[in-house]
Hints:
Elements: H1 3-8, E1 37-41, E2 46-53, E3 58-66, E4 72-80, E5 98-104, E6 107-116, E7 121-126, E8 131-137, H2 143-150, H3 155-159
Antiparallel strand pairs: 1-2, 2-3, 3-4, 4-8, 5-6, 6-7, 7-8
Amino acid sequence: MSPLTDFAAVRFGGWTGLPDVSLAGFAELGVDRERPFGGWVGDPVRPAGWFACSSETYRGGLRIWVDVDGAPMLLEGHRPCHPDDTPFAAPDLGVPDARLDTVLGPLTVTGGELVYAGTGLALRVNVSNGVLLGVRGFAPTSVADYVARLRPLLDADLSAGTGMR
């Protein structure tokens, strides 16, 4: 299995970071390279692009975020579910490098983003019940670099009016 298909199947035990490939290298995920979308990343906030991928696992979508040059920088999946529609439990990957706040609809989930910057993975978790809300995969880096350069803003972050988390 490739790291990309493992990510798509919510298998992170052997994750060592997002592979250094062009957008064409994501073909196995069914990336739609014809329709780019816009979004926001980082702190300070700046525009970035993303492309949708096919996914039966990530009910809220699977995205490849790209930098201004079109190079993939982050793979993000929202609301992973098993085939019977039950949500995944957050995997136990040990002590994270950082715990950041995240959002769940209009609510802020304190400490709900577990960042494993050294392995290039961030898990968004509902801390009250352990449900995995989303996953972000990137090349190993520091927590500061992840927050400043890679971390996508969610719609609720923007609707709060500040764009800050």
